[in-house]
Amino acid sequence: MDADLVLETRGLTKEFRGFIAVKDVDLRVRRGTIHALIGPNGAGKTTVFNLVTRFLPTSGGRILYKGRDITATRPAEVARLGMVRSFQISAVFPHLTVLENVRIALQNRLTRDTYRFWKSERCLDRLNDRALDLIESVGLGGSEQQKATDLSYGRKRALEVATTLALDPEVMLLDEPMAGMGHEDIGRITALIRRLAKDRTVLMVEHNLSVVADLSDTITVLQRGQVLAEGSYAEISRDPQVRQAYMGSADAMSH
Ligand SMILES: Nc1ncnc2c1ncn2[C@@H]1O[C@H](COP(=O)(O)OP(=O)(O)OP(=O)(O)O)[C@@H](O)[C@H]1O
Fold first, then answer.
1. Which end of the chain is more exposed for a tag (fewer CB within 10 A), N or C?
2. Which residues form the ABC transporter domain (predicted)?
């Protein structure tokens, strides 16, 4: 296997009672890149996410993570290996503060790694420092004592990202990170994704084509469960088939 590939699928297929939602998908996600999955509603994007994180069993094909076959691995083990989906662990507790939420996420990771850690007061301080760093890094500095429920939608998503980052994932899967966001939040989350992608790989499903164009190194276009095209935004947006299939119009991809 190519050492550059962090995630690879070969012939990935999913059938729901006779309906083939994902068919023979070969996905190649290179380490350190931002890779977007796009396509019309029902193209199979979310199903691909659910398959690679093992939330859904495959009907056919293989999934390789860092060269290791994870086709039959449990979802929690996949997360432990470093591939984490944003909402997976980051259920945000609405009535806890930003700081408490991030601390809990950090504790989950640390208690798993070394439970004896908790015996030391000094380590608890270090945990606080790490939590404050994470909060700052997602742009929530100053909101540490605010309850999650009182945050705006965009800031709640940023908190979700912070709790996911607490796990220090190597590969982060983001499912429509811009969904429901206003202009200002989109700018902030775009900058955040770019920052967090500096030392990890990001695979995202996103409908906002400006964001996809702006952020992605590679884009895979799905249509009816199959890969229609793959390449940079410039490459796929020149493809007449993509323009036709994705938006039903040859002008649709210029943003
Ligand atoms: N659990 C399921 N049982 C039956 N059919 C399903 C199931 N999950 C998804 N599908 C079908 O599989 C197809 C692909 O769905 P999927 O949600 O992966 O598409 P998507 O590209 O993520 O769409 P969207 O952009 O609307 O979220 C759809 O036709 C959907 O109805």
1. N
2. 7-249
